[in-house]
Design a protein that fits this description.
Helix 2 (about 70-80) packs parallel to helix 3. This protein has helices at about 15-25, 70-80, 100-110, 150-160, and strands at about 5-10, 40-45, 50-55, 85-90, 115-120, 140-145. By secondary structure, the chain is of the alpha/beta class. Strands 2-3-1-4-5-6 form a 6-stranded mixed sheet, sandwiched between helices. The protein has a single domain, classed as P-loop containing nucleotide triphosphate hydrolases (Rossmann fold, 3-Layer(aba) Sandwich), CATH 3.40.50.300. The structure holds guanosine-5'-diphosphate and magnesium ion.
Length: about 160
């Protein structure tokens, strides 16, 4: 059984964009379409000659604000149960939001290897903003742009290092 990497985070932070970049597939749905309800989406990734599975936990989160918190936390719990490493994604262009803080607390309590990907850092000058997210308490904080691909190699180096 290949090791499993889980991607967690609240809606719209770029989980599916990251998943698609990592797997090179279009299996995870990206976009703002209302009412997307899908199952957890699994793919495979190869990095430096090694293989892993990866899961986008956002697939099932319906576009209904009232349901979002409980669903994020349910997905995070599944990730803690089944994954070997967890990448929490936040939107580096927004202020640190309370769902991010609650989710990070849940994940940090879980004891699994954790990485914080501060997404949407599309230009080098934006990357300093990733520092704001250090307050969440993760040891590994990596600025990335899932859309443009920057920072992805460094993230994968760190994740595969502990698999
Ligand atoms: P999810 O709900 O967490 O799966 O987020 P999506 O992957 O569906 O992305 C939500 C929105 O953020 C989409 O409009 C993406 O195009 C956009 N997005 C994702 N990654 C980036 C990025 O690195 N930079 C920018 N500027 N936008 C991004
Ligand atoms: Mg998604």
């Amino acid at each position: 059984q290949l090791p499993l990497i889980a991607i967690c985070g609240r809606p719209n932070v770029g989980k599916s964009t990251l998943f698609n970049r990592l797997t090179g597939s279009r299996r995870s749905i990206v976009g703002d379409e209302p009412g997307i309800t899908r199952d957890r989406i699994y793919g495979e990734i190869e990095w430096m000659g090694r293989d892993a599975r990866i899961v986008d936990t956002g697939g099932v989160i319906p576009d209904d604000e009232a349901l979002i918190p409980s669903e994020i936390f349910r997905q995070a719990q599944v990730a803690l149960d089944e994954a070997d490493a967890i990448v929490m994604v936040v939107d580096g262009r927004t202020e640190l939001a309370s769902p991010d803080m609650e989710l990070s607390r849940l994940l940090l309590r879980g004891g699994k290897p954790l990485f914080l990907a501060v997404n949407k850092m599309d230009t080098e000058s934006m990357q300093v903003q990733a520092e704001n997210f250090r307050r969440l308490g993760f040891r590994n904080v990596l600025p990335i742009s899932a859309e443009h691909g920057s920072g992805i190699g460094d993230l994968l180096d760190e994740v595969f290092d502990i698999l």
